[in-house]
Amino acid sequence: MKKEINIGLLGFGTVGSGVAKIIHSHQQDLQYKLGVEVSIKKVLVKNIEKERETVLAKDVFTNRLDEVLSDPSIDIIIEVMGGTTEGKEAIQQALYAGKAVVTANKDVMAEYGQELLRLADEKKCDLFYEASVGGGIPLIRTMEEGLAADRITALTGIINGTTNFILTKMKHENMSYEDALAEATALGFAEADPSADVDGIDAQRKMVILASLAFSTEIKLEDVFVRGLKEIQPGDLELAARFGYTMKMVGSAAKNEDGIEVAVEPVFFQNSHPLASVNNEYNAVYIYGDTVGETMFYGPGAGSLPTATSVTADVVAACRNILLGVNGKRHHAPQYERKIKTNCEMFARYFHRIVVQDEVGVLTKLTGIYSDHGASLASVIQHPDTNDEGAELVFITHKISRQQHLDVLATLKDTPEVLNVLSHYRVEGDES
Amino acid sequence: MKKEINIGLLGFGTVGSGVAKIIHSHQQDLQYKLGVEVSIKKVLVKNIEKERETVLAKDVFTNRLDEVLSDPSIDIIIEVMGGTTEGKEAIQQALYAGKAVVTANKDVMAEYGQELLRLADEKKCDLFYEASVGGGIPLIRTMEEGLAADRITALTGIINGTTNFILTKMKHENMSYEDALAEATALGFAEADPSADVDGIDAQRKMVILASLAFSTEIKLEDVFVRGLKEIQPGDLELAARFGYTMKMVGSAAKNEDGIEVAVEPVFFQNSHPLASVNNEYNAVYIYGDTVGETMFYGPGAGSLPTATSVTADVVAACRNILLGVNGKRHHAPQYERKIKTNCEMFARYFHRIVVQDEVGVLTKLTGIYSDHGASLASVIQHPDTNDEGAELVFITHKISRQQHLDVLATLKDTPEVLNVLSHYRVEGDES
Questions:
Q1: I want to staple B289 with a disulfide (CB 3.0 to 4.6 A). Which of A39, A48, A127, B150 is the partner?
Q2: Are B293 and A308 in contact (CB < 8 Å)?
Q3: Whose CA is closest to B204, among B82, B152, B289, B212?
Q4: CA neighbours within 13 Å on the CB side: how many for B200?
């Protein structure tokens, strides 16, 4: 019977140092749960000389990966150093060395997740990645275990805290996009270069992970339609509010008999939708299952201790499996072939905001364009505020295909009376 | 290697028939996940002659429990027949017979949970009870696995769909309590005798289960302070709204160095609190963990298929453990001694609504009563609406002990100028 489980920690940044704190401060509870001591035996860092505030002894720090991986007393490797290539290689080597692996690296899991899970299967080692999506929210485990008996048909999530913070400030404090982004940066929610967040790249990676798991298939980065926040126009959020909607930057995925669709984009949600009231830097994922119906999982999407909580929960799972002798026995290859819907097979309601020449007959011409494309309209509203360029019109469609939506926009742009297609968004919520 | 796992289903009511449906309709997915066929081999019912709409063959139905339990080919017993004594005995006998057990029986788990978990440990059999709280929301699993590395310090939950439905109708459609209850009954959310729901008994049982697990201790039914919905006065919800609060019937539990407090009662939540916007028959549990911070888990709290989804998730977990040969290896006795706080050790803000004689000096006398008891006031408001009896005053306190709250109310009731203490509620949310 093992008396202790040793960990090799790769990386000692925000998440890594959080993991060390939790394993130290919750040691008694962990020992009670597992019946063994859990220790961080080695920590891989770039600079071993750097002064660090930590309870760990100075001699656990090393700058040599092989020193961590070749230590036979180390059972579990935690990869929280980041970097796609280095992260992937470290995980591979750890699995080859027969270690269970816990990672928070969404870039690696989005790009090489299936390959690494196959390798983990082959090497009979656990590979857990709860912290790669949704920070402290136990999403992966919920989908794998809690909803194990259900068939997930749709999921929609606020999975990027920075963009949710920006949109919350814009809505509740009437900030401009630029000011809200500046505040997010000042508070440390946004990186110095915020493009991965605001362009939807971060959410795209997380959606690859979530959708692959939800639908038991291999979703690739290029399968995700991505549209960032930069196209938002002044007035869009106020218009959303006027029609009873809240704009949220979400990842969404759905599956039906035609196939799968995955997207990351700003969407108008009916105010009564549970996601509409998820504010600030919080994340939440709304999951629709065949038999369970609507569920939502809410919590901190980032941060040192929340993310480290998820990493450490994975460590507990890995420890249990090691102690029970069932390490690496639960992975599965995806059950279904990947089949992505075409634009003609994805249906949604759309909001179009258009500036037109303020002339008689324009409205008739425009509604004619919608009907020519078979796009049925739910509402047409003349925007009451003046626009310097011309008259502003808002169209909200019934459910149409993404292709119809694109075709309508293209035709509108080619219509002489249309001065500008200001903005367009998908609309989520019941027809009203 | 086992080729199939057989189930004995005790009870074929709302949940039992839902389980049979899911196991049938998701059979292919279950087989893929588990690598074996999962079959319902026997179903215990009172009346085997009754006509039932089901895919199960007529000969699987029996009215003899021993016939189910003595079948050596049955690996897992699902207890969804209800009843405290019968439920407990069936679970005990199943564990003695060496079967893994899955139950949705909150009454049994609240009253005999610790005893049965100890027996399960002894008999080396799994005992899962995800469906006993929160219907389709995977709460038990989330606390045991997802937050395994954290220390839960507080949880607050809307865990009774009927009372949440009633309060939602009262708030959003201005219904009276009686009308809202009648609609809940008509829609099948409330039982013919709704007392278990509206008096908080159902929530009390669920809180015993949740708090015992959250704090790894043995909470008993008598540890839970319970106050039902019947004391709500006309106008209370409007007053809540006027001050920016929403009334919710919740179970709450918290732990600090002084001990544990558990309560079920209607509470005023600040509108910005995530629980304030959980509406209709939905349930949601807000969990605060030491390191993860705020999380919330939302979904259907009852219903045939949602509850059956949780039961079947437990079945999947039990199957996996059986197939891996680790059935019954994960239970633990509670880690901590039970220590319940006294009324002097529980602190909260309170809302008091009082009818007084409309005379000079009354307000001074009343605020004097608060200060005599060391109860500091956050706001005192003369209710602008007239009351036939006298003037209406609303007091909102800063944090005071429950004992101070009770002492103030007792003194108020004994004060000649006080005509009536109309209502009083705990207030959740930041001091404002």
A1: B150
A2: no
A3: B212
A4: 25
